[in-house]
Amino acid sequence: MISNTKGEIPKWLYGVFLRIGPGRYDFGKDFTVNHWFDGFALMHNFIFSNGQVTYRSRYLKSEAYKKAQELHTTIYTEFGTKAHPDFYNNMLHVYQLQGNFYSATETHFIHRIDPITLHTKERVNLNNTIPVHVLSSQPLTDQDGNTYNIGVSFTNIKYVILKFPPKDTLTEGLDTDPVENGSILCQIPFRWKMKFSYCHSFSITKNYIVFLDQPLVMNGMKLIASQVRGYCYKECMDWNPEEKNRFYIIDKANGAVWKTQFITCVPHFALNHINAYEDDGHIVVDIVTYPNAEVLDKLYLNKMRASQLDLSSLPQAQRFVLPILKKIKDVKCKQGENLVKLKGCNAEARVSDGVVVIQPENLGPPGFDMPQINYSYIGKKYKYVYATGLLFDGVYKNGLVKLNVKTKEYKVWKVNEYMTFSEPVFAPHPHACSEDDGLVLTIGLSFKDNIADTLRIFDAKSLTEVARLVANDTYMMDISKLFKNAEAHPDPIEVPIKGVIPDWVRGTYYKIGPGKFDLPSGFTITFRARYVESEAYKRAMAVGKPVFTEFGTKSYEDSSKNIMSRAIHKIMPSDMTDNAQGNLFVMNGRLYAATETCFIRQIDPDTLETKEKFDLWKTVGVNFCSSHYVKDRDGTLYNAGAVLIPTVKYHIFKIPPSLKATDSKYEKSPFRDVQQVGNISSSWKTSFGYNHSIAITDNYIVYVEQPYLVNLMKLITTQIKGKSLKECMDWCPEEKTRFYLVDKKNGSQKKIKYETAAMFFYHFINAYEDGDFVVVDLLAHDTPIMCENFLLGNIRNCQVYETPDHPGLRRFVFPISNIKHEPSKVNLVNLNYTTASAEKEKDDTIALTPECIGEVGFDHPCINIKQCLGRKYRYFYAGGLYGEDTIYRRSVFKMDLQTREVKAWRNAEESIMGEPFFLPNPTGIDEDDGIIIATASDVRPTHRSLLVFLEAKNMTELARVEIPIDIKVLNHAFFLPS
């Protein structure tokens, strides 16, 4: 249905705005999934044309969803819900590959979707072409059109970096699915024995892939025992605060993994990379980090429904700067010298005991996540990131955020305390003259049953609302409303717009996230929003319980199986879920939903129907994969994943751009072109670091290995012990966080070891090269306590952000030149705009100390991707989180990283802001010339969720769309231009 608007939508805005996230949690009266991550994928799209908006939603028809619908239980083990094997619920991300759209979670299963109707098409098993089992749901495409991803291969026991070449490099007349064209660029051994790091996203630069290996790990032994013990995936995860995060840098050209160990000075947990870029001999990686994985525990459904959302610490956008040092012996510095030499950068990288210890620089106050930038700036130096403050306490709480990563200034736009915003999406002006020349699209998420969710469009420069979809006006406080089942609405709905949306905004805004928590006899379904019809969703709907192990929900037996099958199931590892509710991405014109396994689902961008599922394990060999696919300037999509067999590694891979997005010869095999860029060995033999995102710069992919470890032994035993995925993860704070720079051209890894203290992070903000340094900005926690906070029980009880460990922006600076002759214990960083340091240790490791920029308490950052991704940037936008003690509280804000100024937009105290999205003005010149789109969820039952449009320069509202249907707290957003 054609949307009525308040305000005026710019007529240049033509395209499809896709969103995906959890939508259904309850199945009948007897079963509810445990964790927010386990909700079945619900897709939303907003189609923009000539100043008008059409909206629809649809569930992803994954196998998990169909079975759960049929049997009223989950058949597949989900993140926090134990089930029968298969990780099919693609609820994390939607991305495009060679004209196809896919819904992805963090397994090797993806679903092809129709971006218009949102119908679920075929399911794709990436493992059919690449040996990958776990995969980031957020692949990245570089300027050359190559798409990269990071996954985990149980076959190789390594992380695998996947590469999908651009469509125009394929053999003429070859009838392939772009997913099938992927290859393993490199493999990275696990840091820990039988444990691998959780990877939700990664970064790319012009020449490198940045993979963050973090101390939130999947325990292989727990995973093995999961079938016997009935673990869900979260129960197979260990937070190892004694470990530190490690950045792996993979050369995109040859897949070479730098030998230099970049280790964080403290452990962080990160879900989302913001961006990465090369800058004057540095790789700058911006990530949203948490001090621990507590956030995952807070997302248990019983906590969320009880509005128990507080975190002990907030997510922080942080800049990690890695000196471009392929080998630690190349370091030439004085003892204790900071290797980060970027002007004005406070991130540190110092050599200590043969590793580079990195200390990030905080990018503004903490409290936002789900960052987005102007896509044209992926892997490039950038200024702005847009994000959502969600329910994190602080200045961004419930706000849409624009952060200038150069000045650290931010803007926050809020509605009220009953509404927050989803992940923003930046839509560039077709004639953009600056990075923030465009619009930011987001959804205002209402906390209350009687308040509609609202689509809002913001001018990206000012972060002022341009237009919105409208609803009614009564309220009642109840945060748990956001974490109840959502309704699927496959038919467009008429909604009015308040304000004026610029006429250059043409496209569709997509959101994805958990939508179904409870199954009949416990699980209930209930927008055009449409559930991602993943195998996990379908089978959970059929059985009434999850049959695939999800992040925080263990799997349950499929009663439809015979006794022998169920007996075998008890002793065999569970399959990965395809519940792709983590992220959305576009690959070669096609829309995909991703989670953090090797499965992604293609989504019809118009109808939101779930299409094919793809298995990255078969094409690139990764078992777990970041849900953040990063698109380079040339259209290449990058991502990273963990490979488990025969050795634990991280694979950096890419998907090249297609010849023609509409070429029919690629309809069946969109992932055939995936190519492995390089691989990084895990620091642990039986574990790998959890990774939610990667970053890219012009030349590098930034991968962070954080000591939140996936313990393979726990993973293998999930079914036996009845554990979820999270219960297979170990936080090892005694371990370092390691950064890796992978050359985008050849996949070679920087020989320099970059390390910092253990940290937990989800999101990069950005990364870029600055002379002889790579600067990495990310949002980090001290621990992964957020993982615990996201247990649905914590969320529904409003305990999700009770921890003080809020994420904050940490800027790391990596020296990338030869450090062999550099003195030890001397800061090698000479950038004048950061205090981050990098000191050479005795073993040539670069010890990184980040610059903590601004206050903590925000996440979901975004930037002007088109202009700044992977490049030096000034602004980013993010959302303030739930907590009451941060300046970003319930806001969407803009931070100027140059001046550190923050501009925030808030709707109301009752609003919770989702991840902002920066849409650049097509004719804009400035970095912040554009619109911020973000969602604001209102907890008042009579108030609707909002999609708000803010002028990115000043964070003033341009328009808003009030959705007459609740839009739950969603993960990530994507804008598909027409």
Low confidence ranges: 84-88, 170-174, 471-483, 516-527, 557-574, 659-666
How much of the polypeptide forms β-strand, as a percent range? over 45%
Question: Which class best fits the helix and strand makeup?
Answer: mainly beta
Specify the CATH architecture of the domain at 480-977: 7 Propeller
Categorize the overall geometry: globular
Keywords: Iron, Metal-binding, Oxidoreductase
InterPro entries: Carotenoid_Oase, Quinoprotein_ADH-like_sf
Binding site for Fe cation: 200
Cofactor: Fe(2+)
Give your account of this protein's structure.
The chain has 978 residues and is mainly β. Among the domains are: 1-137, no CATH class; 480-977, Methylamine Dehydrogenase, Chain H. 6% of the residues lie in helices and 55% in strands. It contains 10 helices and 85 strands. The strands form 15 sheets. The protein has a 24-stranded mixed β-sheet that branches. Strands 37, 38, 40, 41, 43, 78, 79, 81, 82, 83 and 84 form an 11-stranded mixed β-sheet that branches. Helix 1 packs parallel to helix 6. The longest helix is centred in the first third of the chain and has 9 residues, at 63-71. The two termini are 18 Å apart. Residues 84-88, 170-174, 471-483, 516-527, 557-574 and 659-666 have low confidence and may be disordered.
Give me the secondary-structure topology.
Layout: E1 2-3, E2 6-7, E3 15-27, E4 31-32, E5 41-49, E6 52-62, H1 63-71, E7 74-81, E8 86-91, E9 93-98, E10 100-104, E11 109-113, E12 116-125, E13 134-135, E14 140-141, E15 147-153, E16 158-164, E17 183-193, E18 195-204, E19 208-213, E20 216-218, H2 220-224, H3 226-229, E21 231-232, E22 237-239, E23 246-251, E24 256-265, E25 268-290, H4 294-298, H5 302-305, E26 308-313, E27 316-323, E28 336-340, E29 344-345, E30 349-358, E31 361-362, E32 368-373, E33 379-381, E34 384-388, E35 399-404, E36 407-416, E37 419-421, E38 425-428, E39 432-434, E40 438-446, E41 451-459, E42 464-468, E43 497-499, E44 507-523, E45 529-534, H6 535-543, E46 546-554, H7 563-571, E47 576-580, E48 583-588, E49 590-594, E50 599-603, E51 606-615, E52 624-625, E53 630-631, E54 637-643, E55 649-655, E56 675-696, E57 700-705, E58 708-711, E59 714-717, H8 718-721, E60 723-724, E61 729-731, E62 737-743, E63 748-757, E64 760-780, E65 785-786, H9 792-795, E66 798-805, E67 808-815, E68 826-829, E69 833-834, E70 837-840, E71 845-849, ...
Parallel strand pairs: 3-44, 6-45, 7-46, 8-47, 9-48, 12-51, 15-54, 16-55, 17-56, 18-56, 19-57, 21-60, 22-61, 24-63, 26-66, 28-68, 29-69, 30-63, 30-70, 32-73, 33-74, 35-76, 36-77, 39-80, 41-82
Antiparallel strand pairs: 1-6, 2-42, 3-5, 3-85, 4-44, 5-6, 5-45, 9-10, 10-50, 11-12, 11-49, 12-50, 13-15, 14-15, 15-16, 16-17, 18-19, 18-58, 19-23, 20-22, 23-57, 24-62, 25-27, 25-67, 27-64, 32-34, 34-35, 37-40, 38-40, 40-41, 40-81, 41-84, 43-84, 44-85, 48-49, 49-50, 50-51, 52-54, 53-54, 54-55, ...
Helix pairs in contact: 1-6
